[in-house]
């Protein structure tokens, strides 16, 4: 009796102390994620969209792609080298991370490594005191651009190559030099490339990766098998039209030709978040050659649609020339490329439209309404349908309607809230009730550049007809690409 009395009294006291402004109901919670999820560094990486690669070294001077390791270091002499110019080109292109080949297969080191005689120390450049890695990282730091490094596992110069312990010790000594001395490194690149008659060699990858993680806390490790970022399986810059960021890491190994198709599409049942990076060069070769020219703008745009537009990051190689500068014709092409992307995507024709959806998690005003796909947050604000409902026989859908007149577009952009997992397996797009696209995965960003060119209509409906859990759409755009002229249209 007394207990009940006390309870009653204390409840009354609590109630009388309630502030007048207490909300009458609490906010609807976000849905549970569908695992696996990206790490903080993987999410940062994904949002960069375009990364630069700079292939530079003795090959630049010997006009080759694969050096022999027998070059005389004297050939390396970039008399006008200015790494600030490379970084300025990145800034002008809107690129926030640039990766340098600190060592390519020839074994020539762009920094004065203590562990080899094949480096800038043997070069007359900067009177044997040069350090390209330092000039590059200093210039990047000054301009707020992040850096990454490539240290080729295959080394055609070093005599230890082929001997497991001595070579792995050498390789790891160089990793320590690079990752201790040059500040924060955001990506490191490992590959399995090697000549068919190269000596057999076992790389101690798991030791390398542990060392990298020990020395750099926010780095993404790239290789055929991750663990941070995976190779897309080709050097054309194209991902699969279906592309999952999820894959089974246990099925991957480095330098294994039988896994390239799996790398290109990923795996909807994959247990690891391991998104793909699409490496490609602006020119035919990876190193600069006087005889080569940059790809056409239309080719670069196609690569963009097939990499960034397929849930991947585009890793674009821009090789400095023998002067030590990025060539004027490459810079010109990059300016056109940046201008084209800005022209296409700066205007979202859906912006002034009304928008509705099959259902809303928590109902209207819950913080999960369809209008959130038109704001500028492409990760953490999103439309979510109700949990339980299959939303009738139409499934989950979201519809954009022009207030008056017709919409005229040739690109549809869809983005998922990947912070809560990649979900959509299958989707379709309808204009005024007529299906114009049958698609599969979406992921961070899906760009449909319409095969038949421009469409006009009043309503655009996106139907999700298969997903892992409920679909969460963070952004939708309708765009007009004036550079897109499908053949025969
Ligand atoms: C490398 O090892 C494989 C099997 O372990 C062997 O068949 C091959 O001949 C070796 N290659 C060289 C160049 O030693
Ligand atoms: C290559 O990958 C396949 C598929 O995962 C695997 O069965 C095979 O053992 C791998 N080969 C090597 C040399 O790792
Ligand atoms: C990947 O792993 C999951 C979970 O173990 C499994 O269900 C799936 O079949 C695997 N994928 C492949 C291609 O083997
Ligand atoms: C390298 O590019 C710069 C322009 O950025 C140019 O001035 C220089 O002549 C080029 N060097 C060669 C060898 O083409």
TrEMBL record:
- Residue stretches making up the Glycoside hydrolase family 29 N-terminal domain: 74-336
Q: Which GO terms describe its biological process?
A: fucose metabolic process; glycoside catabolic process
InterPro entries (alphabetical): Galactose-bd-like_sf, GH, Glyco_hydro_29, Glyco_hydro_29_N
Signal sequence bounds: 1-23
Q: What keywords were assigned to this record?
A: Glycosidase, Hydrolase, Signal
The EC number on file is 3.2.1.51
A Pfam family per the record: Alpha_L_fucos
Q: Name the GO cellular-component terms.
A: lysosome
Molecular-function GO term, any one: alpha-L-fucosidase activity
Give the family, as the similarity comment puts it: Belongs to the glycosyl hydrolase 29 family.
Entry-linked PANTHER family: ALPHA-L-FUCOSIDASE (PTHR10030), ALPHA-L-FUCOSIDASE-RELATED (PTHR10030:SF37)
Q: What's this protein's name? A: alpha-L-fucosidase
Tell me the organism.
Centaurea solstitialis (yellow star-thistle)
